[in-house]
Amino acid sequence: MARTLLYLVRHGEQDPALGHSTDGGLSERGRRQADRLGRRLADDVLDHAPQPDEDAVGLRAAVDHFGADSAEDRYELVVTHNFVIGWFVRHVLDAPTWRWMSLNQENCGLTIVRWDTNRPPALVCFNDIGHL
Q1: b/e per residue, 48-65, with b = 16+ CB within 10 A?
Q2: Residue 7: its pLDDT value, please?
Q3: What global pTM score does this model have?
């Protein structure tokens, strides 16, 4: 049986002086958060994955991509935005579509979703910030 573990991480705190631009840098606190998360994940085998689009079509495609059956075990890391993670959690819990907007993660919070062949997806952890 093949397993996919998807590590979803909300990006570190952005520098408020840079606003909410997509190319904004991290604040000093955000850099510390990212460093601590990096140390926590250093022992895991992770592949880089593209950030999914933040619309329903893109989010559904991302779930299909990451949740697809595979012949081998996969470990994927997506560093993204709060609501993208909410969409994945909503999907795993089979919650109504509107529910994704109310699921909030801390900056550099870790959420892990697991897919096993021939089983429904499982939420391993949600918004774990023990490393911070």
Answers
A1: ebeebeeeeeebeebbee
A2: 93
A3: 0.80
